[in-house]
Amino acid sequence: MSEDCDRKALTNRAVAASIAVASTHCITVNEPKILADAYSVRVHLQPAPIVVRVSTLTPILRYPIASWLLRELAVSEFWRQKRSRCSTKRPFAVWCTQSR
Prior knowledge:
With 100 residues, the chain is an alpha+beta fold. The protein has helices spanning 2-24, 58-61, 65-82; strands spanning 31-37, 40-46, 51-55. 8% of the residues are buried.
C-alpha cells in the first residue's frame, strides 16, 4: 500500500512541476490531463496544445540522466527539422532538483 501512495505522490509532484514550469512561460493550464504514468509522467497541459514529459523513475534507470536527456532533445530536434512543415516549437528541457 505504501508503494501505491508513494507512486501517487510522485505523479502529483510531476503534474505540479509541469504546471509550475508552464506558468513561468506564461502558459495557462486549466485542466492537466495525465496521458501516461510509467517511468515518466506525460501530461497534456489543457487547453494548450502542449504535452510534457516529467521524468520520475527514469533517473534511476538511466544514469547519468543529463546525457540521456540531451540525446533525447537532439533526436527531437532532428525530427522537428525533418518535419519543418509542422508548426512545432523547438523542444527544450528544464532540469529541476527538489529535495525529497
